[in-house]
Design a protein that fits this description.
With about 50 residues, the protein is mostly helical. It contains two helices and no strands. About 50% of the residues lie in helices and about 0% in strands. It is globular, with a radius of gyration of 10 Å.
Length: about 50
C-alpha cells in the first residue's frame, strides 16, 4: 500500500461493517475509504 496507516484504517472500517478479511486488499481499501469518507490524497471522498 502507498500509505500503510491509511490502508490499515480502511481495512478496519471495512471489517467493522462486515466485509470479510479474505477479500482483495484493494477492494477493502476502496470500500473502507468510502465508509470513512476519507481520500488517500487528503480531504473527504470526492463527489462525482
Amino acid at each position: 500500500a502507498w500509505n500503510k496507516d491509511f490502508a490499515a484504517q480502511c481495512h478496519e472500517a471495512a471489517q467493522a461493517k462486515g466485509y470479510a478479511r479474505d477479500l482483495c486488499a484493494y477492494m477493502r481499501n476502496y470500500w473502507g475509504s468510502i465508509l470513512l469518507n476519507k481520500y488517500v490524497f487528503g480531504g473527504e471522498w470526492p463527489e462525482p
